[in-house]
Amino acid sequence: MREESGMSIPRRYPLIFNPRARSQKGGRTRQFLMEHANRFALYATNTGQEAMELSKKFADEGEPVVIAAGGDGTLNAVVSGLAGSHTALGVMPAGTMNVFARELGIPQNSLPKAFEVIEKGFIREVDLFSANGSPFVQMAGVGFDAMVIEETKWESKKMLGPLAYLLSAVKILGEKPPKIEVISVDGRRETGVAVLCGNGSLYGGQFKLFHKASNFDSMLDVIVFKEAGYRLVLDSLHGIALGGIDLCSSTSYFQSEGLTVRSNRPVPVEIDGELLGRFEEVVFTETCSRLRVLAPEEPCGTPFADAVKSLLQWPPKPYEVQATKTL
Ligand SMILES: [Mg+2]
Predict the structure, then answer these.
(1) Model-level pTM?
(2) CB 302: neighbour CB atoms within 10 A?
């Protein structure tokens, strides 16, 4: 708690960061924080758990804003701590991907600009979903992509860069995939070998995987990969390396307010790119509150622009039956 004193001390934003962030941006972030240290109450955390507990403490104390400075891992921990509270999240992107920042149009290559967004104080409320009770803002994966994250060690990432993920992918694709069943709350059933859920449209950097998704529609966009798709990926790594392959025929895509994923064996699960653990059953559901995020009023990112456009068109026009044209 803040102690009252006779001096007028400007309010500082509690800011949570990982001092051991290894990305190149980590160094620049620390420099920025030092140069603006009089604006923040800096909390260097050791673990995600600590970042989450600290954020929760600030939320419980009624802090209006808590800033997460770091990559998607730090962000996810802070989001978990703020879930269900009125405290707004400030984002200072400092990771390599910054998927959520991109989605909301928060400047990700300029910390001064990202800080300006926080100072402006415009708040957007985004959907907050959870996987087995752990909240996530952007996306989650069951099976393949979580296995790749689990398999790829930091040392190999440092040595090989993105190639490290590709090597892990090759290894995993050579193993027998799990059998996964997906049951959505509206009764839809699908089977496959891996599942991705998107709250926003972006996955892994700028890749717009969930083409219909929006952070504001109370829906998860779900992609179920069929076994054929697994084989296709394995057979087509060359194609992926050259910029992607068409997976449409071996995936199903649907939107749902919630779903349960069951696997024939415990499989890794990731949320917002962070490994959550291994589970045989994962329940995805919307949390009872939305997350308040300090974001630009007019973002530059196209996915966000699309989302805003769709909001402006709400409620949608009733389906119009086109009269047959006679020429
Ligand atoms: Mg959504």
Answers:
(1) 0.78
(2) 12
